[in-house]
Write a structure and sequence with these properties.
Blueprint: H1 17-20, E1 23-27, H2 31-47, E2 50-54, E3 65-69, E4 104-109, E5 112-117, H3 120-133, H4 136-139, E6 143-147, E7 154-157, E8 160-165, E9 169-171, E10 182-183, E11 186-187, H5 192-204, E12 208-210, H6 218-221, H7 228-239, E13 244-248, H8 253-256, H9 268-284, E14 290-293, H10 310-321, E15 327-331, H11 351-356, E16 367-372, E17 395-401, H12 417-425, H13 441-445, E18 467-470, H14 486-497, H15 503-514, H16 520-530, H17 533-540, E19 578-579, H18 599-604, H19 614-617, E20 620-621, H20 632-655, H21 663-695
Parallel strand pairs: 1-2, 1-3, 3-5, 7-12, 7-18, 12-13, 13-14, 14-15, 15-16, 16-17, 17-18
Antiparallel strand pairs: 4-5, 4-6, 8-9, 10-11, 19-20
Helix pairs in contact: 2-3, 9-10, 14-15, 15-16, 16-20, 17-20, 20-21
The protein binds 4-O-methyl-beta-D-glucopyranuronic acid (GCW).
Residues 159, 172-173, 214-215, 294, 333, 377-378, 405 line the site of 4-O-methyl-beta-D-glucopyranuronic acid.
Length: 706
């Protein structure tokens, strides 16, 4: 740890001023009610209000805020039984509840507020709802609203290692210092930082956290067995905030930890080994969430070694955790990372669908297939993964990357809210991807989807798989390296709760909480900097959906040919005449055919493929004219010049308000802006120069290219 107290992020003391200055009653029992009571007691002590703790149903006539378990609902919903509700109702139906009821009622009458919930988890969400609203919670007209999350699976995955990994470090793809959980081989003795983190996550609605890297190395594998005691300690911290802990496990554990000579999922001894391992885990952590598995991917072991399918592997683990209502999050990120760049027929983008689509319907009820949003790897621009639309009889989770591996590594100010919102709102069965009545990607992930093309029932039969994302947090003073990257974590949590929230409005919420009392100009500047920052980053990096072009290994900064002749399957095929990957059915790898209609046809045709994904689907000459009216080469030049100008404008906007926030925050932001400008300029010059040299076509506007 840095020794400096961690930044309060979106929960500074002042965020509790509206609650703390009132007469507040907390009523009801339960572990989380105690947490709520502590929060309220601290706030009222600080801001001069009054706090009392009562039993449910006791008189509370002069209270201005009552947070109470509902007397009629005090029995918590304990069952994790998967709902058999008819999922055909489509968008707008009430959330499927397949776990603890986390809903709450918010009632305001003549300026007094009552928050009521059937469970203490719901009540905690209700408390933070009031925190977010601040004074406006008490201001408005009388109201009676019920709030419920879109899904009960709202998860963060940490790629933290217990041991410092020789190349990946303490946190794989971590850009925020060390791990908050581990320090050079040990789980930290002092977990106070984890407690603060859990509180921040609870405030945005996250309710599950996987605490170790999906690349499970030797030491980390033992969290499941010898080091389980450490997981017990971490779980106890999260429990106070309504968050359940999950572990990433190695599929080879029966061999590496159990001394068996196989990990074959159909072997009885292997199955028994997992049954016993699960029994020990749940014995120690009764509310443990389940296992996350990266199998047969980038060197991680899996069922392929035994000629078994991923359903065989996942279902064997699912059976072991089923008695405890545990889940198996099985990642669909399976591809050949040892391919030959000379082989034009193998397409990494196809791999997840090719492996998983044939298995639709074969996974057990408690398996969630976790699908990265795009077919490659968290690029700034990719089409939606067709796997999400191809598994109507499987629980699918959408996986996002909050850590900015490919979006500026928390050196660059890149707010991902708009990207996620666009992904969540995409409709696979609508010609424009937005309007119409068929399900959005959010519907598919929250179990509300009705698949128009499902030949069987016309319905998605399995309940929700929910959301998962890679965390961007470390032991850095600001949690996330770049203070603005906090907004990504904030937005991810809020979008999991309600995927229809407006990403710009979420920025306003984040600013309001994080910089309480700051002049309006601060919020305006944050919006001016971040609203278009995703698009800006796209402009100065890899063009038109082609992806990668990053330096191999660490993935920061430009290297147009960095991955061109490597085994990783991420190519752009630029030559003197043109660029792009032909993924059409007619002449290319056939990937476009993995989409349902109408998108299969839309992507297949050069005349209908959206500009921003053109090079993902087609190989075209530099002179090809886009829908925008520009040639591909001129588009590359223009966007790269404009991207850098926009970074300069962002810096200008922020400089107007930089003295209005905490100087430490301000100093860190300035540092990062200097690096963003340097790096964006480097991107611009390398990409433009590369394509000028390849194509020999000059910039129409005669700007400097080297
Ligand atoms: O994005 C890539 C990363 C790997 C990561 C992998 C994955 C944990 O470069 O570091 O491994 O994806 O998602 O499994």
């Amino acid at each position: 740890m840095t020794g400096v107290a961690p930044h309060a992020a979106w929960l500074p003391d002042d965020a509790f001023a509206a609650i703390g200055s009132r007469r507040v009653v907390v009523a009801g029992d339960g572990a989380l009610t105690a947490t709520i009571a502590e929060e309220v007691a601290a706030a009222t002590a600080r801001f001069g209000g009054a706090f009392s703790r009562l039993d449910v149903g006791d008189g509370v006539s002069d209270a201005e805020l009552v947070l109470t378990l509902a007397p009629s609902l005090v029995e918590p919903v304990e069952t994790i039984e998967v709902s058999t509700r008819d999922a055909s109702a489509g968008s707008g139906a009430a959330a499927e509840v397949s776990g603890i009821d986390e809903s709450f009622r918010f009632m305001r009458e003549a300026g007094a507020v009552v928050v009521q919930a059937g469970t203490d988890a719901g009540l905690l969400h209700g408390l933070f709802h009031v925190v977010r609203l601040g004074e406006t919670a008490f201001d408005g007209p009388d109201t009676d609203e019920t709030h419920a999350p879109a899904t009960d699976l709202r998860m963060l995955d940490h790629w933290d290692n217990v041991d410092v990994h020789p190349t990946m470090g303490q946190v794989e793809r971590g850009y925020s210092g060390g791990s908050i959980f581990y320090d050079n081989g040990f789980v930290r003795a002092d977990l106070s930082r984890v407690e603060r983190y859990a509180r921040l996550l609870a405030a945005v609605g996250i309710n599950r956290v996987a605490i170790n890297n999906v690349n499970v190395h030797e030491h980390e594998a033992r969290l499941l067995t010898d080091d389980l005691g450490d997981v017990v300690r971490v779980a106890a911290v999260f429990r106070r905030w309504g968050i359940r802990v999950h572990l990433s496990v190695s599929f080879a554990s029966p061999v590496t930890l159990g001394g068996l000579d196989t990990s074959d999922p159909l072997d009885q001894d292997v199955a028994h080994w997992w049954v016993r391992a699960a029994a020990r885990v749940w014995d120690a952590i009764p509310d443990f969430g389940g296992f996350v598995v990266k199998a047969d991917s980038e060197g991680q072991p899996g069922p392929f070694a035994y000629g078994r399918t991923h359903a065989d592997g996942a279902n064997m683990l699912a059976a072991a955790v089923e008695p405890y209502e545990g889940l198996v999050h099985w990642r669909a990120f399976v591809y050949d990372h040892r391919q030959d760049w000379r082989d034009r027929s193998t397409d990494r983008a196809r791999a997840a669908y090719d492996h998983f689509h044939p298995l639709d319907g074969a996974f057990s009820e408690n398996v969630v297939v976790q699908v990265k949003y795009g077919p490659l790897d968290f690029q700034v621009r990719e089409p939606l993964s067709p796997v999400l639309a191809a598994m109507p009889h499987t629980r699918v989770a959408l996986e996002l990357q909050v850590t900015q591996e490919y979006t500026g590594q928390q050196q660059h100010a890149v707010y991902l809210g708009q990207q996620w919102s666009q992904l969540l709102g995409f409709r696979f069965w609508e010609p424009d991807g937005v309007g119409g009545g068929s399900p959005t990607v959010a519907d598919l992930a929250t179990g509300r989807g009705k698949a128009a093309n499902d030949p069987g029932t016309g319905r998605w039969r399995k309940p929700a798989g929910g959301f998962a994302a890679v965390s961007n947090v470390g032991d850095d003073e600001f949690w996330t390296g770049h203070p603005f990257a906090q907004a990504n974590l904030y937005a991810y949590g809020r979008l999991c709760w309600d995927p229809t929230l407006d990403p710009g409005a979420l920025l306003d919420e984040w600013v309001g909480l994080t910089f309480p009392g700051a002049p309006d100009a601060v919020g305006e500047a944050v919006r001016a900097v971040l609203d278009r920052s995703w698009e800006t980053y796209e402009q100065y990096t890899a063009p038109l959906g082609v992806g990668f072009m990053v330096r191999p290994g660490h993935h920061y900064g430009p290297d147009v040919d960095g991955y061109e002749y490597t085994p990783w399957g991420t190519y752009h095929f630029a030559d003197r005449d043109g660029i792009g990957v032909d993924r059409t059915v007619r002449t290319g790898t056939g990937y476009a055919g993995q989409y349902p209609s109408p998108w299969s046809a839309t992507y297949e045709s050069l005349s209908t493929c959206p500009d921003e994904l053109l090079l993902f689907f087609h190989h075209v000459p530099y002179t090809h004219v886009l829908h925008s009216g520009k040639s591909v080469i001129q588009h590359i030049y223009d966007t790269h010049f404009e991207g850098v100008s926009r970074v300069e404008e962002m810096i200008g906007e922020w400089s107007k308000v930089s003295t209005l926030v905490d100087p430490r925050v301000s100093e860190r932001i300035s540092e990062r802006f200097a690096e963003q400008l340097r790096s964006a300029t480097e991107w611009r010059d390398q990409v433009n120069t590369y394509f000028l040299r390849k194509s020999g076509i000059p910039d129409e506007r005669g700007r400097t290219i080297y």
